[in-house]
Amino acid sequence: MAESVSNPQWKDRKAYKTKCLIKIQHTKNAITNFQRLLQFTPSVSAA
User: Which domain of life does the protein's organism represent (predicted)?
Assistant: First the structure.
């Protein structure tokens, strides 16, 4: 089962992988922003 570049399924899989990577990056950014927010508000996290 050799996958060729002209195979539409291969392109779909690559697009799907890229979408997943972007989603993971956005999630990482969101977590980082949330942690930064907690650092800036120690009174809230302590309560």
Answer: Eukaryota
CB 10 within 8 A of CB 4: yes
pLDDT band at 11 (very low <50, low <70, confident <90, very high): confident
Q: Are 45 and 38 in contact (CB under 8 A)?
A: yes
Token representation of residue 39: 């650092």
For 19-42, letters b (16+ CB in 10 Å) and e give eeeeeeeeeeeeeeeeeeeeeeee
Residues contacting residue 4 through CB under 8 Å, at least 6 positions apart:
10
pTM listed for this prediction? 0.54
